[in-house]
Amino acid sequence: MARLNFSERWWTVVLILAASAVAAPTLARQMGSSSESRIEASSKLSIDRAAAGSTFKVAVILKIAEGWHVNSHTPTYDYLIGTTLEPAQREGIIVTDIRYPKGEKTKFGFAEDSLSVYQGSPTIFFTVKLSERVPPGKDTLRAKVEVQSCNNQVCLAPASIDVSIPVEIVGAGDKTNQINEAIFSSYTIQASTPTGGSRSEIGQLFEEKGSLVAFLAIFVIGLALNLTPCVYPMLSVTVSLFGGQTETNAVKVFLKAATYVLGIATMYTVLGVSAALSGTLFGSWLQSPWVLSGIGALLLGLSLSSFGLYQIQMPYWLTSKLGGTTGTGLISLYLSGLVVGVFAAPCIGPPVIALLTLVSSKADPLFGFWVFFTLSLGLGFPYLILGTFSGMIQKIPRSGAWLVWVERIFGVILSAAGLFYLSLAFMPKLSAFVIPAALILGGIYLGFLERSGKGKKGLQWIKWAFGVIAVALGLFTANALREPGIRWEQFSESKIIDAKSRHKPVLMDFYADWCIPCLELERKTFTDAGAIDATSEFVRLKVDLTHFDSPESEALRKRYDIAGVPTIVFLDRNGQEMLSSRVVGYISPKEFVEQTKPAVAAGR
User: Fold this and answer.
1) pTM, full prediction
2) Residue 400 has pLDDT above 70, yes or no
3) Calculated CA dihedral for residues 453, 456, 459, 465, nearest 10 degrees
4) Domain of residue 515, CATH code
């Protein structure tokens, strides 16, 4: 459709004003001077009662007087006043996915081109999510609809129409029934799609493929969590626990490894079910500076043991009661699994959010237990294999020199991990440099300075090769940190409004300094040339949630329904979120580019 040039648009405005000046006095006397006099607003719910913790749909129906119209939400010209719905913000109630009807192209005498308008009874849909802590009883949600009504001669003054939405709230376990299905048949809620393998398709798997396939998928998600950097210290600790064992019976070794993994599984099952029941971010308290620094100090202490400065083992009076004298009894291994499980918690929060949503929707604690127990078994499965066969290290020929050097490798890994956690706690901006520094310094030490195996040519050549590769990899990693990435602006509401006025999509990255997957996104995804190019049309905003429970962060989390970080939110050119594109957790550059496409295309 051809757009009006400046002079044509000017004459259009003049005609509108002239028509209004001539007709307004008579019309005002006959029908009132406000747009509100020509429009009635009512509401319908998709359920008869709303259970605490549930999600339901709302329809706001506008009844426009015959012969009158209002501009659509996306009016033809930017100087026209579009129809907008503004739900009132309240504690424990989140409004998402506001959906406006498509405007009708209609020709009027005061404009050259057809205008995008609403006539008759247009319906605006949105979704309401209730907190589990919303008290039961009769309640009223409120919203305002901003409109301007016009006919073929005159436009009345804009008006703000109040909409009351009565709702009866019941307990989380109470039964509710679907109603007004004909009204809501054209509206389907766009679900969020967290990444990292834990997408909302898990819920569909339970419905379409059955529990066996769904739980197998959850187990695979747990396996995939081993690719996050937080779990690497668990490798070193596992080898330290099992590498020096003297047990030769394969069944007993396997039983010990299974007990150790059961401790890991118990830790994550308890944390996951607790998070599901409380509705808080999985592992969020494990991301505080105090806890991160404690984990860092513990890992540094373990690393000094790997360098041979001392031997860590539980007190004799305790180990003798727990089932062993070396800290490798069944109960002591189970307790070790509980402690080791804490190491990975700061990394795996975001991929678990989708499972928390699934568990909360079922409202079944037993179901929540099995979901997170299966997930943690997937996480712990590699350590079952590692624990079972770690004792084979001692069977390597001439194991003395080899074993000492392998212990030094794990010492370097534990030291790097400890420094990484400490940097997250106190100097998060420097945490990205820990890995390349560890590779370079560790490669020099392990390849050329560490003295075990001196005089044994085979081991010496391997150490030299190891050192060269580690230093080269460290230099490559350090150089990668210098790569340019997406250029972000600091978040502000004014930038959201400005982007909408300029008809530009918005990309918001909700992050925190202590968030390890956020660092992965920054280093891997946001430095990718394809990702940079794909976001060139966006207004790109960083939203800092480092102080997660501060009033400012809490307000932003409630407004955008942020359960954890990192979360990437896409707004289309009209300022509406593309919920189908939302990302929770780490996402690869290729997947990220695909997620940007709907927001770029919408509203063009």
Assistant:
1) 0.53
2) no
3) 110
4) 3.40.30.10
| One-letter identity of residue 482 | R
Handedness of CA 203, 208, 210, 215 (dihedral sign): negative
Residues ≥6 apart with Cβ < 8 Å to 474: 435, 436, 437, 438, 439, 440, 443
Range in 109-113, 334-338, 553-557 the model is least confident about:
109-113
Residue 47 clears pLDDT 70, i.e. is over it:
yes
Joined together, the tokens standing for residue 506 give 């918005």
Rounded CA-CA distance 301/37 in Å is: 74
Asked if the model's pLDDT at residue 531 lies above 90, the reply is yes
Q: Provide the domain limits for residue 345.
A: 201-397
Query: In DSSP terms, which residues pair with 51 in a beta bridge?
Result: 170
Q: Are 268 and 375 in contact (CB under 8 A)?
A: yes
- Name the CA dihedral angle for 375, 378, 383, 386, rounded to a multiple of 10 degrees: 180
Q: Which uninterrupted H or E stretch holds 40?
A: strand 39-45
Where helices occur in 249-348 by DSSP H, the ranges are 250-278, 289-306, 316-322, 330-344
The alpha carbon of residue 319 and the mean position of all alpha carbons in its chain are separated, in whole angstroms, by 42
Picking from 348, 369, 397, the residue at the C-terminal end of a domain is: 397
- Residue indicated by tokens 């009204």: 183
Helix (H) or strand (E) holding 445: none
pLDDT tops 60 at residue 576: yes
Q: Are residues 81 and 137 in the same domain?
A: yes
CB 413 within 8 A of CB 236: yes
Query: What is the tens place of the pLDDT at every residue in 454-475?
Result: 777 888 899 999 999 999 999 9
* Chain centre distance of CA 23: 54
